[in-house]
Amino acid sequence: MQLIKSDINLDFVGKRKLAVLFSALLLLISIGSLVIQGGPNYGIDFVGGTLVQVKIDADASSATIKDALKDMALGGLVVQSFGDESNEFLIRAQSSSAELKDISKQISSSLESQFGAGTVEIRRSEMVGPQVGKDLREKGIMAVVYAMIGILIYITLRFEFRFAVGAIIALVHDVTITLGVFSLFGKEIDLPIIAAFLAIIGYSLNDTIIVYDRIRENMGTLSKSKFPVIVNRSINETLSRTILTSGTTLLVVLSLFVLGGGVIHNFAFALLVGILIGTYSSIFVASPLLIFWDEYKTVKAAKGKTV
Known about the structure:
single chain, 4-stranded antiparallel β-sheet, alpha+beta, 10 helices
């Protein structure tokens, strides 16, 4: 199946400087948001604490639930609506009293005293210690770092070092912007989101490798053409495949985001943003970086001859 003619010749390379400005703006907004927020909004997986999901068969709100739990000595208490049902809530506390050995039952008891017996259903209860959360956070970060290092080595061996640098910069670009979007929307970073980031890295890299492979082929068949022409030709030749792959993947992820429910909402959101940014970076970041590298080497070589 081919949506786009193979001889199409859109000038992607000609827009590379505009793409650099756009990417720089997105990165500036993302990093600025992270700085203002004091870093990513880590979930209890990474900072430790308690999460309880409750369903209340009564007229309740986040404010009334917080009021009902005010005597429980819960630190950093956050209550928010959950899912599509108006009577379902997530109760999060980053710290809890040492005496609370069965916090879900005590939360249930406190809420039933406020809303009535039999009106509260505990649907989920999780507790993570602060040291465990710290270890998970460090391992999650290192998993992303190790993935980047492995990719750098793999692409250097398969292609050239300049291809590896271009791919890594594009991946850092994708993860940073996705992280920034999470910061802007106040969404939490937990273990499923780290899995989403690794999936984004894999997806974006796959798309970039397809374009890079075509560039390498065309460097042989179009050896008399200028390098920017080769890169632009390669992007156009793989454009149909890129649109088909990204489009079908986005349909699946969008379905998960809309219909999957609150449990996987953030995971699907991360993939949705990551796939969009990853497709953009394969065309406007990873490939144009090769041109900037080639231009730099050409200028450096010319200066060396004049000395």
